[in-house]
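The freezer alarm interrupted the setup, so I double-checked each line after restarting. Inputs confirmed:
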Amino acid sequence: MPSADTELALQADEEAARDYLDEGGGLLFREVNSPGVYWLMLRPASTPDEKYYVRLAWTVYPDEPPSVKFYDQIAGRTDVPHAWPNAPGYRINSWDICKPFTAEGFGIHPDWRNGPTAWRSTGNPFLYVVETIQNDLNSDKYQGRH
Amino acid sequence: MDPATIEDEQSKKPAHVRVTVTFPLANKPPFHKDDPPDTTVATVLVAAMAHFEVTDDETTTYYLTHDHEKADPSKTVGELAGDKHAVKFTLAKEITQG
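Predicted 3D structure, all chains:
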């Protein structure tokens, strides 16, 4: 369970992430009974009628990256291909995002903890993670839904 | 259009566009600058990266987003600002490794 410090730090930063998502037609929910867990709803810029659901689970904030998983609906299933975007690093063979902003990515690549890929805890990492996922969905490398 | 009207239209054009760049991981305030309208996004990117003390490397590339989408480096701040005379970007980083 996240510490009280983590919960306080998340509460301080979540508003900026919520505002960012609101501007793009997305949403952010805090899971009341699971401290550190948030649900995002995001829309790709190229197909704004589409919705993706993402579960963020923070354990130590802001010093560690969150677990990031796509789901077919809020509190639904993650192990279904159509829940996941087809984009570099978003993998349906292991249901994870192998990029240096997720706990899963750093778990696979311990070497990412140093150098330019190292996790940065400055500023608002919550907003950074949300913006990074949205930017990946808006990127020209995004090829639709699996 | 008579010369007086042309002069009047030109006098309404602002000499500068208020440019703001935020970076979520920054431990310093946003980048602010009043730039001529013909300043390109690419020029703003260079100045913002210097402000936030970040650089591209073999795994990381920085770019600017505007209204949640990647900003075309060749566009000018005047084009993006329109009648608002101000434009806000976010500095984003793309990791090419994964």
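Quick read of the result. The domain at 16-95 of chain B is CATH 3.10.20.90 (Ubiquitin-like (UB roll)).
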